[in-house]
Amino acid sequence: QQSLARIRSQLPSEERIKQADVVIDTDCSLDELRTKVKELWQKLELDT
Fold it and tell me: Quick one: the chain helix, strand, coil %, rounded to 5?
């Protein structure tokens, strides 16, 4: 019951995406995901 209450209290995905600084789409192969993460990390390092 507690887990259901936690799930219900979470923001919908659309709201989380709106509020996020970064969104990584994980609907891809592991190799593609690694590439996306590396590219994003490099971009974030340059921005700081």
Answer: 70, 0, 30
Any idea of the CA torsion for 20, 26, 32, 33, to the nearest 10 degrees? 60
**Domains of the chain: which residue ranges?**
22-48
pLDDT per position in the chain (48 positions), as tens? Answer: 899 999 999 999 999 999 999 999 999 999 999 999 999 999 999 987
> What are the two backbone dihedrals, phi and then psi, of residue 3, each rounded to the nearest 5 degrees?
-65, -40
Please tell me the pTM assigned to this model.
0.66
Distance CA 27, CA 33 (A): 8
